[in-house]
Design a protein that fits this description.
Length: 363
């Protein structure tokens, strides 16, 4: 344990902790988390096009995870930027979009490294998030403070220790273990945040590593489970539990917090999948009733890949030429399927019901 917040935590213990973790309460929570992960994995396999769910969930996670670091953008700005990439995109929106690219970079890195989750993977994720070529932090003096009180609450290990600690972290993550994977995920997340290997981007990188670990262990087949919304709702408890591991060796509260995050997030994602499938079927039937001339199947697929859409997207995807595409979108707006939104000279059409599902978990 470590008690001096202004002294680097250079003697950070290796994992697993030298104490009993499988308490009655932790095991109960782990069983529940695994149950909902299994349900989510099965539900994802029912999706006709999993990429639609991945895109929508990843975009929401990008926004939520960045918001934890006070990098805030709006849904409008985010989705408009996806279909209208240009140099006028606000800086914070670009940073959120980089988080989305970092998730995919992490998945690719793991797939090309024999399904191993490496320190190298963490570096690649951070580099995407921060748009940098930097690696582990090299400059001394990193300290984490309370923004309100300005008090130093944690000083991570000095840079000279980071590479070795990350190598130990890597071994723990990848070596076979009798520890339940969802419990192990909580342990590896704490350790990564305690090492604080980068000058910036540690929190976002750590949250991406969590879902990659669940993929690695086969608990998920798609990267669709993220804890950022849960952490935002329980931000004070999240940081309190982290500090109590460091200061008091209180692993139980931390592990329980993370298991609750997995369970609640899996439940929410399951609701999103069911609601998306129902809405997609309803939308397809509604579009078919409007006109037989509208390519209902292809257009509906597009509406669920791009919750914010414009005429050019239909043109680029070969759905229709400009005038016809405009007519399609206007008809869908007239029938309440899409909501028009004019931004400057650009007209967007929003799949509002889908956006409600993505942001609220229901229609």
């Amino acid at each position: 344990m470590w008690t001096n917040s202004e002294t680097p935590y250079n003697n950070l213990p290796e994992l697993p902790p030298a104490r009993e973790l499988e308490t009655k309460e932790i095991l109960k929570k782990a069983i529940e988390a695994n149950k909902y992960l299994a349900g989510l994995k099965w539900s994802c396999q029912r999706l006709p096009d999993p990429q639609i769910l991945i895109n929508t969930v990843v975009m929401q996670e990008s926004k939520d995870s960045s918001a934890i670091e006070n990098i805030v953008t709006t849904q409008d700005a985010l989705y408009q930027a996806v279909i209208s990439p240009n140099d006028l995109i606000p800086h914070q929106t670009k940073e959120v979009l980089r988080y989305k690219h970092a998730i995919y970079a992490g998945v690719d890195s793991m797939s090309t490294n024999s399904n191993l989750l490496l320190g190298k993977t963490a570096i690649e994720i951070m580099q995407k998030i921060k748009n940098t070529q930097e690696g582990y932090r090299k400059l001394p003096g990193t300290q984490l403070g309370n923004p309100a009180s300005k008090k130093i609450i944690y000083t991570p290990p000095e840079p000279v220790h980071v590479a070795d600690m990350m190598a130990q972290w890597e071994r723990f993550v990848n070596e076979p273990s009798e520890v339940d994977p969802v419990i192990k995920m909580a342990l590896m997340h704490y350790q990564f945040e305690a090492i604080h290997p980068f000058a910036d981007g540690n929190g976002r990188t750590g949250r991406i590593l969590n879902v990659l670990y669940l993929l690695k262990e086969g608990l998920l087949t798609l990267p669709v489970l993220y804890h950022s919304a849960y952490i935002i709702q329980h931000k004070t408890e999240y940081y309190t539990c982290l500090r109590e591991v460091t200061e008091k060796g209180n692993w139980e509260n931390w592990v329980i917090f993370m298991l609750d995050a997995v369970t609640e997030t899996a439940q929410r994602t399951l609701n999103i999948i069911e609601s998306m499938l129902d809405l997609k079927e309803q939308t397809l039937n509604a579009v078919r009733k409007i006109s037989q001339k509208i390519p209902a199947t292809d257009l509906t697929e597009l509406l669920f890949s791009y919750p914010y859409i414009k005429i050019k997207v239909l043109e680029d995807k070969g759905i229709a030429k400009r005038q016809t595409a405009s007519g399609y979108l206007q008809k869908l707006a007239q029938h309440g399927i899409l909501t028009p939104l004019k931004v400057g000279k650009e007209m967007y059409y929003i799949n509002t019901k889908l956006m409600n599902i993505i942001t609220n978990g229901n229609e």
